[in-house]
């Protein structure tokens, strides 16, 4: 999975940690169907995010009433479904989405008990782990020891 993801992201120009909105934009350029991450006020009792695959585009709906970090995680998780080639479930009234507008189905993110949810969470972790580790990285000193330590602790080279 990691090797396939690396290749897909390299082709899309995702070669360092970046905002998940930018990841969606870059992936969209290399696909037949663009990906539109969109804030959507999902029902409080429903999922925080949904992936809605359409005939000509795909939407990732995410809860606007949560933290920016949580939104990044939601988008990364839903991208995981797309990148793994998962199939959607039917939209349910409890999803809080107008099913007349989106009749293609959705994958709802409320538990990680299925293999698809575990795969999507693995991809989300891979997409986000290095971005979190690289925040606030200080440039290493010029000594070989400092550079080796920086590489071991958070160098962006080979981030995925």
Order of helices and strands: HHEEEHEHH
How many distinct folded domains? 1
The helix-and-strand class reads: alpha+beta
Mean pLDDT: 75
Largest sheet: 4 strands, mixed
Distance between the termini: 11 Å
Major sheet strand order: 1-3-2-4
Give the number of DSSP strands.
4
Low confidence ranges: 133-140, 154-159
Q: What's the gyration radius in Å?
A: 17 Å
Number of helices: 5
Residues in β-strands, percent = 5-15%
User: Roughly how much helix do the residues carry, as a percent range?
Assistant: 40-55%
Overall spatial form: globular
Organism: Actinopolyspora erythraea
Protein name: IrrE N-terminal-like domain-containing protein
Describe this structure in words.
The protein has 160 residues and is α+β, with helices and mostly antiparallel strands. The protein is built from 5 helices and 4 strands; from the N terminus they run ααβββαβαα. The chain has helices at residues 2-12, 20-29, 68-84, 115-134, 144-154, and strands at 35-39, 49-53, 58-62, 107-108. α3 packs across α4 (115-134). It is globular, with a radius of gyration of 17 Å.
């Amino acid at each position: 999975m990691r090797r396939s993801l690396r290749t897909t992201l390299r082709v899309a120009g995702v070669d360092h940690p970046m905002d998940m909105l930018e990841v969606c934009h870059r992936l969209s350029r290399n696909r037949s169907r663009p990906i539109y991450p969109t804030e959507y006020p999902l029902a409080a009792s429903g999922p925080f995010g949904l992936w809605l695959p359409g005939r000509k585009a795909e939407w990732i709906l995410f809860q606007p009433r949560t933290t920016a970090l949580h939104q990044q995680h939601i988008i990364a998780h839903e991208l995981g479904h797309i990148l793994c080639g998962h199939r959607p479930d039917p939209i349910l009234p409890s999803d809080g989405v107008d099913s007349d507008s989106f009749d293609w189905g959705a994958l709802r993110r409320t538990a990680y008990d299925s293999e698809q949810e575990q795969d999507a969470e693995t991809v989300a972790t891979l997409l986000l782990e290095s971005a979190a580790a690289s925040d606030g990285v200080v440039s290493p000193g010029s000594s070989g020891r400092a550079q080796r330590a920086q590489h071991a602790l958070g160098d962006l080279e080979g981030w995925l």
